[in-house]
Amino acid sequence: MDGAVLHLGSGKPTMTEDDALAAKGAPSEKGQARKPLIKLDKLSKHYGNHTVLDGIDLEVMPGEVLAIIGPSGSGKSTLLRCINYLEPPDGGHVTIGDISLNAAAAAGRSELSTLRRSVGMVFQSFNLFPHMTVLRNVSLAQERALGRSRKNADERSMQLLSRVGLADKAEQFPGRCSGGQQQRIAIARALALDPDVMLFDEPTSALDPELGLEVLAVMRELAETGMTMIVVTHEMSFAENVSDTVMIMADGKIIEKGPSQDVMRNPQQERTKRFLRAVHDR
Amino acid sequence: MLPSYEELSAWLPDLLSGLSISLQVTALSLLIGIPFGLLLALGVLAKSRLTKILALFLVEVGRGAPALVLLQFIYFGLPTTGLTLGSFTAAVIALAWNTGAYSSEIIRASLQSIPHGQREAAVAIGLNRLDALRYVLLPQGLRVALPALLAFSILIFQGTSLCFTIALPELVSRAYEIGSNTFRYFPALLAAGVLYASISIPAALLVSHVEKRAGSYAQR
Fold first, then answer.
1. pTM of the model
2. Looking at domain B5-218, does it have CATH number 3.40.1110.10?
C-alpha cells in the first residue's frame, strides 16, 4: 500500500487514472480492482417541477477520490445526499458494493441501514451532537449500529481521534472545539463505522481558510490510505492535487469528468472553462 | 383581618393535609401527563395518518376544553356511562390529560427547534429512528422544553384548586370549609394563598434558574 501511495504523490501526472486506481486497489483486491465500488444509473431527483438531478450515470472505483465541483444549485450536494438516501432519489439505481437500490421501489429499512453503514458522510456544518462528549459522538453509532461494546467502541474512537490529531479533546464537548477541530471530529465519527466510501459535502465551506487547511490535511491523509472518497468542494487545489478524478456539474447534469489534472488544466467543455475562469478570477 | 395565632394553629393541620393532597394530585398528574405528552407529541409528528389524527384529537380536546370542564365531565359526566371514579382519580385523570395536551405542544415545538442536521447526522451514521430519537433528538429537545414544562407544572399545581368543585379535600376546599364553619373566610383563604405561594414562588425561581442554565452546553 505504501508503495502505491508514494507513487501517487510524486508520479501522478504521468500515470493514467486507471493505473493510479489499479495501484491503489491492487494490494488487497487484485481481481476485483476493476469493478466499480459505486455505480449510479440514470439517477434523477425532482423538487416539484424543478429537476435537480437529470439522469446521472457515474462509476467510482475502489480507492478513487472523486471531486465534484460546479456552480451553486448544480445538484452536487443533492447527488451526494442521494447516494446514501438522505434524499431518496426519484428514479434510477444506486449500487454500492453488494447493495443495490432501485429508486422506483420503496427502500426497506434494513437495506437502507446497510447502505448507510457502508457510507460515511461529513457535512458542511459538522452536525456534531452538542450534548455529548467528543468521545461519545464517535462511539455512539459503533455501539448502536455495529453492536460493539462500549469499551471496544471507545478504543476504536480513541484511535480515530488520534488519527485526526484530537485525542486530547475526547472528554470535551464539541462546543469547546474550533470549527476545524469539529470537522475533524466529524470525520472520525464517520470513519468509526468502517465505511467503504466517505462522502464530503463542502467540508471546508463553513470554515475560515486556516481552519480549512487542517481539515484538508486530514482528508489528504485519508485519500492516501486508499479510502474511496467523493468530495463536493470549492477547494480547487484539493480537486486538482488530491483527487484522482474531477467531475463538473451544472443544472443537474455531468458536464465533464476525467483525470483531475486534465480537467482542471485543460478543460474541454465551454461550460467548464467558464466556471473555472470565474473561480480563478476571484 | 389577619388570622390570629390561635386560629392558625387550629387550622394548620387541616390546611397542610389539603396542601398535601394538592401536591399529590400535582405530582401524579405530571408523572402521568408529561410522558403522555411525549407520546402525544410523537403521535402528532408520526407519519401514520391514524396515529396522527388520534393524537391530534386528544391534544385538541385536552387543550381546547378548560380544565374545569374536563374535571366536571370526568367526575360528573362519566358516571352516566357507567364509569364512576373517585374524586382523587378523576382529578388526576383530568389534570394529567390537560398536562399531556399542553406538554405535547411544548415538546413538539422543542423537537422541531433542533437543527435538521442533527437528525440527518444521526441517520447518516446508521442509527435507526428510535435510536436517533433516544440518543440525539430527545436529549436535546427535552433540554429545550424543560423550562416551559416546569413553568407549566406550577400552573397545574395552582390548577388543582379547581378540584374543589368535585369535592376533593385539597387546599382550597379545606380553607373554604374552615370559612363556612367559622365565617372567617378572608383569613382562611389568605392562609391558603400564602401556602400556595410558599410552593409557587420558590418553584418559579427554580424555573428561571433552569432557564438560564438550559442549553448552556452549546456555548460551553
1. 0.83
2. no
